[in-house]
Amino acid sequence: MSVIGETIDIIIEKSPTPLEEIWIDDLVIGIFFTGVKLSTGHAGCAFTPIGEIPEAVCCPTTAARMPQAGELEGTPISEIIKYSLDPNVVKSAIGIATLNAISQLILESTNGTEYQMIRDRDGFNLLNIELHETVSLIGAFGPYIRRLKTMGNPFFIIEKNPQTLRLDEMKYFKPESEMRDALEKSGVAILTGTSIVNHTIDQILSLLRNGIRTAIIGPTASMIPDAFFKRGVHVMAGIEIQKPDTMIKILKQGGSGYHLMKECGEKIAFTKR
After folding, report:
1. What's the pLDDT tens digit per position in 222-237?
2. Do 28 and 248 contact (CB within 8 A), yes or no?
3. Would you call 29 helix, strand, or coil by DSSP?
4. φ and ψ at 184, to 5 degrees?
């Protein structure tokens, strides 16, 4: 079973309210993030993989991707969470955002006692990266590239689209075909949430060797971590959306993770005990 498939099963089991009785109250597919607000008042978001939508230049073809556009409000999330398994990455983003939102309800119902949760700490810091330790960044995460350059650690950037890298960063670049080799040489791996939405996460997790400290970081990585921890992840660092209506407004107006963190959310991280 995929890590998201298992997460869905866990969420169905742990939700204090049957998922058939919770529905989509509002939804926005923003340029950078997709956001979902539930009828319970909880909210979540996920990366919008615009660059991975091949039909984005053709409106009639793209329309077939989202036949229910404009009609999703009021849909039970028992149906929407299935989107997270869909090869259509737009639907996948909606499904993952919904999993993140319902995870907030579960965390509330358990008062956080079931998980080791840390607030207002960056997932990068929780990895306790040592001097000279080699790091694999799976996804070109600019702030961490700059931090690793400043720290002087050897590192690899494993990225599908090398055009996202600056000229001076190309010396760190590794194509996806060399991911296994890079991970074998690394003591730390950092993944962006993009891999969850585009369904590459299971392949990446299968390449993790014992002992490599692994974190998935970003607003997309905000769901309960049980299934990820079983597969070798040590840190899941995302965001708790505290003002759902503000999140919807920000994403409608092209807001990014920076705006979400500043205006309507707080960093949260789950760490493996």
Report:
1. 999 999 999 999 999 9
2. yes
3. strand
4. -65, -25
